[in-house]
Write a structure and sequence with these properties.
Strand content: 5-15%
Shape: globular
Number of domains: 2
Number of helices: 1
Largest sheet: 2 strands, antiparallel
Distance between the termini: 20 Å
Strand order of the largest sheet: 1-2
Helix content: under 10%
Order of helices and strands: EEEEEEH
Radius of gyration: 16 Å
């Protein structure tokens, strides 16, 4: 995803990227073409790196991200609270000691049973971003 002209997120398709795993140093790098990231100075941007699970047959509202349910099922992970607006983020890269913990950020939201499409951004977990 990348911001559109209003700053709202939009899907970016057709972007090839490379993932490099270095087991010796326990690091994962993702290389994305500069052109896929838009205009401006990257040193002025904020970044987030999250792990989600891709769903080949998504519902229309989830942008291809696999559901996380309270109880695991075939093709669905378990461990989520019993609400509709919990996060589908499985892991979030966050430097220890730089504010809230990953668990705190992903757990901070008002649980809801309203349809997801009726919720505003405040109805979901808000994550902090990393800056250079």
């Amino acid at each position: 995803m990348a911001p559109d002209e209003t700053g709202a997120p939009k899907m970016v398709g057709g972007v090839s990227f490379k993932v490099i795993v270095d087991r010796a140093t326990h690091r994962v790098q993702m290389r994305v073409p500069r052109g896929a990231l838009g205009e401006g100075d990257p040193m002025q941007w904020a970044y987030a790196a999250a792990v989600l699970s891709q769903d080949g047959f998504p519902s229309s509202a989830d942008a291809g991200v696999r559901d996380v349910l309270p109880q695991a099922e075939q093709w669905r992970m378990g461990g989520a609270p019993d609400d509709v607006n919990h996060t589908r983020i499985l892991d979030y890269a966050w430097a220890e000691g730089t504010g809230a913990t990953q668990e705190e950020m992903l757990s901070r939201y008002p649980a809801s049973s309203q349809p997801v499409g009726e919720l505003t951004a405040d109805g979901f977990a808000q994550i902090e971003m990393l800056t250079p």
